[in-house]
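Question (not urgent): is this output format expected?
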Amino acid sequence: MKVGDTPELTGDVTTLKSSGLFNAENIERMIGYGTGRLAKGYFVLVLKDRLTEDDFEFGGTTLRSGGREGLPAASAAADKARVRVHDRILRERGPAGYRMLQKGALVSVTPTGEDRIVKILPAIRHADDLPPNVQYPMGGGGLQWNVTKARKFLVAASVDATGHAVWPGGAADIGLGSPGTSARVDARAQLRRYIQGA
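Got this back:
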């Protein structure tokens, strides 16, 4: 995967304002990635297709890893036993009520800006041997949806293990931690502006 690619993907997404960008520690905390998960870098993808009600399921917030209720469990089996937010809402509201909630939720996201849908892909991929509560701890509480039908995303930026970010028309050292130098703060702001409009 490289900057400028437009893969069609599924999976968990959030909004730009809920992502913690552009500080690896903040992203881990906000999204619910284990400490150090972004230490080898990550990609920032922005949704380019417009979602419809048929394209996603509710995953609650990033407080609930994997779109399930309660805290992540210490084993994969116990984690899968947690009730899915999607299933609970569907049971309580029925299909028509669920769809109405989806329609209302779609109004809150925008094709650009802070309320656009983003996906953060760590260079360190999922490891089957790590327990869910270590790999995907409770996050910061931002929007979490599960895109169930492959939709087009733009690989808007990549950040390597040293904190060097690359995006179309730009590159800068944004660092991985905080607060960083004023140059890093300026670089992060420049990158954020690009991602808001990409």
